[in-house]
UniProtKB/TrEMBL annotation:
Family the UniProt entry places it in: Belongs to the glyoxalase I family.
UniProt-listed InterPro entries: Glyas_Bleomycin-R_OHBP_Dase, Glyas_Fos-R_dOase_dom, GlyoxalaseI/FosfomycinResist, VOC_core
Name of the featured protein: Glyoxalase domain-containing protein 5
Domain VOC: 5-136
Species name: Wickerhamomyces ciferrii (strain ATCC 14091 / BCRC 22168 / CBS 111 / JCM 3599 / NBRC 0793 / NRRL Y-1031 F-60-10) (Yeast)
Lineage top rank: taxon: Eukaryota
Pfam entry (one): Glyoxalase
C-alpha cells in the first residue's frame, strides 16, 4: 500500500477566528499559527492557521483566500469527519459536555468503524461541517 497515514486535512471556512474559537473552546483543540516555508511559489509572510489534536491537524483556509495549492472546488461546510473520543470520556459524557455548551448533538447510534464497531454521535461546526465523535466498543 502506498499510504501509511495522513498528516493534515484542510477546511475552507467563512471565518477563521470563529472556527478557531469553536474548536478550541468546545473541543479542546490547540490553535497553531505559522508562516509558510520560504518557497518561490508561496508568500512567506502569509500567516497560516491550523487546529491541532493528537498528532493531526486541520489547516484552515479562508473562503476566497485559499492558500496555494488548494482543492479544485473549495467548499465551506463540505467536510464529514469522525473523531475518536479521548480514552477518559464515554460517549454519554461527551454528549453531556457539548450539550452543556449549547451545541446540539444528534444521530447517537452504533455502527461499523474502520477498526470495529463504534458508538457515535454527530454535531455541526459553525460552517456546517459534519463532525462525528466515536468510541470503539
Amino acid at each position: 500500500m502506498l499510504v501509511k497515514d495522513f498528516d493534515h486535512i484542510v477546511f475552507t471556512v467563512n471565518n477563521i477566528q470563529e472556527s478557531i474559537d469553536f474548536y478550541t473552546t468546545n473541543l479542546g483543540f490547540k490553535h497553531l499559527e505559522f508562516k509558510a516555508d520560504i518557497d518561490k511559489d508561496v508568500d512567506p509572510l502569509r500567516v497560516r492557521n491550523a487546529l491541532v489534536f493528537g498528532n493531526k491537524k486541520i489547516n484552515l483556509h479562508q473562503r476566497h483566500k485559499e492558500m496555494d495549492p488548494f482543492a479544485q472546488t473549495p467548499t465551506v461546510g463540505s467536510q464529514d469527519l469522525c473523531f475518536i473520543l479521548s480514552d477518559d470520556l464515554t460517549v454519554d459524557q461527551a454528549i453531556n459536555q457539548l450539550t452543556y455548551k449549547g451545541i446540539e448533538t444528534f444521530g447517537h447510534s452504533n455502527k461499523p468503524g474502520s477498526m470495529g464497531l463504534i458508538e457515535s454521535f454527530y454535531i455541526r461546526d459553525p460552517d456546517g461541517n459534519l463532525l462525528e465523535f466515536a468510541k470503539y466498543l
